Amino acid sequence: MRRRQRGNFAIITGVALAGILAMGALSIDSAYVFHVRQQAINAADAAAVAGATGLDGTEEGMTEALQRAQAIALANVAAGDSVVVEDADVTFGYWDDEVREFVASDVPEEVNAISVLARVPTGGLVGEVAFGRSIQQVSGRAVALSQEGPASEVDCFLPIGIPSCLIEGGAGPDAAQYIDMVLNPPGADNVGWARPDANPDASWVRDQIRDCEYGGSVELGDTVELGNGEMTSALEELAAAIEASDTTWDGSVWGPQPAREHRSAVGQRFYGNTWEAPALVFDDDSYCGGGGSWTGTAVVSGFVWTAVYDVVAQGAAANKTIKVRVDTTRTHEVGTGSGGPEWGVDSAGGGLLVR
Q1: Is residue 270 domain-shared with residue 294, that is, in the same domain?
Q2: Neighbours of 256 (CB within 10 A)
Q3: Strand order in the sheet with 351-353
Q4: Which residues of the chain have pLDDT under 70?
């Protein structure tokens, strides 16, 4: 009887031990597969971002994007080998902001995103040897959006709100043009101070002029509060910024520089300097005819490059002006997102991971 019991115990122990070993093997394998899957995801992320930087709205750009994605994938290692991304695992398309998803497309003009699938074969470290488990495959997918093109977001901006009619009028949107920015009185004013989601008081405006990134980033669709107070202290701060600026009037772009204003707040020896930054634009035609209201809010619809070259901070309210040259012809790559109107302010480039 005892021998049979000893035999039964041996059988039970053997079965239990096999089960424990199997569970241990599967546990080790699961951890390994999880690790390799993360490597595949990392490779897909890097490849998608690299590919997105090549997109430029042309077939050549799509070819370049494919080559960049595959090259960066090869530079990544998963399961001990370089990651190979086949042509069939790369899909082009565009990013639909409304539904927040990638839409496949082969039309170069609308392609601004790339989807990359990184496949990595992997076997179990223990399970395959012990139990003959077949090779598995794990994968990682990533979608990246090209940041090339007209800016949809900026980190640095002149705290001025400009109605779109000023940009689209005058010499037209395709030419550099002079604009006298008048802040007051009502009926004569054509621009206003602008601050994201808060009152543009004099203290904040001065801080924003001192550091154009002080107010943080602004993107299309953001709400800004407008104000048309001439705020002499803010105008004087802007004049000081011109005097301290390291950019100067470029006659090949701006044309001849106008004579310095009689009441200019910019010192004679500094006249010729410019303070350059994007300004915030909102859609409205009424302001150019004196019918707008500067006590409300506006929605940012774009950014335009401005070079402030003179400021009048003294005299009657209507005489206090900001003299600006607006450039919509050259590309100024200072934006941090793409998808805005073509008004001279573009994204600084790169790819943005959206998955």
Answers
A1: yes
A2: 7
A3: 101-104, 90-96, 113-122, 136-146, 351-353
A4: 1-29, 123-135, 169-176
Residues 100 and 124 in one domain: yes
Which amino acid makes up residue 215? G
pLDDT in the model for residue 173: 43
Cα separations (Å) of 40 from 43, 117, 303, 354? Answer: 5, 9, 39, 17
Is residue 174 located within the same domain as residue 141? no
Cis peptide before 108 (omega within 30 of 0): no
> Does one domain contain both 38 and 121?
yes
Which pLDDT belongs to residue 174? 46
Residue 329 lies in domain: 152-353
Q: How many angstroms separate the CA atoms of 56 and 75, rounded?
A: 24
Q: Which of 114, 146, 178 is the last residue of a domain?
A: 146
Per-residue CA distances from 162 to 143, 179, 288, 300, 304 (Å): 35, 10, 10, 10, 9
